[in-house]
């Protein structure tokens, strides 16, 4: 499976945010998107997830077969919001996402143990602390059968131990043939290609640079 972006442009509110972004990501690889505030990292992730239209260029997935014929079917987007219902329990939320995305390798209980939330799955999601909410959102990735993880500031709110645990989970996902595109200001502790988005000092289209 291969995720390909060619000459991609993004805009918000009718104004260009970036242009000329290109990369190819193979199974087992991770791309870390960096750059200053407002340079378009979240916009790029949302375009890949299909939540925003691209302004120009090509974006496609190759080799997904019948299971993953499109990026939408292959991806799991973890945005700034955790996309969980506060009134439902953690377990109920995870069951919903497992059913919606297709079952992943972990059961709901196993995923909660893995992220260190074993024993509090019965609590309403709204009772959890900021870091616990993020950990529960990471558990969503584990109960879902989605090879392409799109992660926007995934470690925001996590303590050091949880950061290290999540780095290990990301590496395991890649070793198993998954792919990751992650926007971050913080080192994620994984081997990845870096895509640097340009300075956003003016509202002019910025170029992304692969290093
Ligand atoms: N709904 C919107 N309408 C108009 N402009 C928007 C909208 N959403 C975002 N923008 C603008 O688009 C630009 C890119 O925003 P984006 O959130 O992609 O940046 P980012 O690189 O992820 O920033 P950060 O590091 O702060 O998370 C910013 O200048 C922002 O103000």
UniProtKB/TrEMBL annotation:
Keywords: ATP-binding, Cytochrome c-type biogenesis, Hydrolase, Membrane, Nucleotide-binding, Translocase, Transport. GO terms for molecular function: ATP binding; ATP hydrolysis activity; transmembrane transporter activity. It comes from the Bacteria. Its EC number is 3.6.3.41. The keyword ATP-binding applies. Pfam families: ABC_tran. InterPro entries: AAA+_ATPase (IPR003593), ABC_transporter-like_ATP-bd (IPR003439), ABC_transptr_haem_export_CcmA (IPR005895), P-loop_NTPase (IPR027417). GO terms for biological process: cytochrome complex assembly. SUPFAM superfamilies: P-loop containing nucleoside triphosphate hydrolases. It is an enzyme of class 3 (hydrolase). Transmembrane segments: none annotated. The keyword Chaperone does not apply. NCBIfam families: ccmA. This is Heme ABC exporter ATP-binding protein CcmA. The gene is ccmA.
